[in-house]
Amino acid sequence: MTSLRPVSTVQALAAALRERVLSGDIHPGASLPEQEISARYGVARPTVREALAALVHEGLLRREPNRSAYVPEVTPADLADLMYVRRPLEDLMAEAVAGRRVAAAEAALERLAALPADAPWAAVVSEHMALHEALVVAAGSPRLERLYGALATETRLGLVRLRDVYPDREELVAEHRELLETIARGPREAARRAVREHLHWRSG
């Protein structure tokens, strides 16, 4: 029998704040004063401090001297630069996995499609990331995985912007289903072209 590890108050608070950040409920630039969070969630200040530290470590929040932790803003210029760096990495992925189905990516797509209409956007971000990360893992290069992983936090924050771009989640699902089908069919050049086109961020 597998035992479940209990979730601490710090972990539970960090999870709640993470979901709010990745759902866009806490807007970029917004600060998270410890006293306000303590009062809202009914937890002690040291608990708040630990939870915020965990999210700062993940890169979802930033903290500067004499300022509360805050959500960093991912500007259009940041997104453009992020895509500039991601394209060659995903091009390598497309070349490696063209002509193959990636079960883990397809499973993430089905989980995305199955999310209820009222699911928090953070759940969409999670499955979207899982799909792309599964494709990168399938390429079979640990170094490619590490390089891609270094961009994960900025990518997750950038995906928050898509909430307003895709009011109909089915459109997002359809785009990723077409992407996976194109990669699976191949050949390499068609897969690479599909990935390049997919990486053009839509504006709201």
From TrEMBL:
Record key words, sorted: DNA-binding, Transcription, Transcription regulation
Keyword Manganese: no
NAD listed as a keyword: no
Domain HTH gntR-type: 7-74
Gene3D superfamilies: GntR ligand-binding domain-like, Winged helix-like DNA-binding domain superfamily/Winged helix DNA-binding domain
Pfam families: FCD, GntR
Name of this protein: GntR family transcriptional regulator
Species in which this protein is naturally found: Microtetraspora malaysiensis
